[in-house]
Design goal:
Blueprint lengths: L1 H13 L1 H8 L5 H12 L5 H12 L6 H14 L16
Helix pairs in contact: 1-5, 3-4
Length: 93
């Protein structure tokens, strides 16, 4: 997914018309999400597509490159393992 996000950031840098459409406040978020889906087609994973749509919906299309870099830094530092499971306390009585 990370590779797809970097590729998307690079695409927005190259394709100014696409970037301008995605940051246009007059276009509804659903239209922008559909534009992303149409542009990327079947070449993207659903999670990456949803993340891109979320970023666009928040109005952060111009910041995609920085967001991807921050994600990459976080991912590199994160110790991703299973989440701890909270166990209910025993009641004596």
């Amino acid at each position: 997914m990370e590779r797809q996000l970097f590729a998307f950031a690079a695409l927005l840098e190259r394709e100014t018309r696409l970037r301008d459409a995605l940051v246009d406040p007059s276009l509804p978020p659903e239209n922008k999400k559909q534009l992303i889906a149409d542009t990327l087609g079947e070449h993207t994973k659903p999670l990456a597509l949803n993340l891109r749509g979320f970023v666009i919906e928040l109005g952060r299309a111009r910041e995609v490159g920085r967001i991807v870099e921050a994600y990459d830094e976080y991912d590199a530092r994160a110790d991703v393992g299973p989440a701890p499971v909270a166990r209910p306390k025993r009641r004596d009585g």
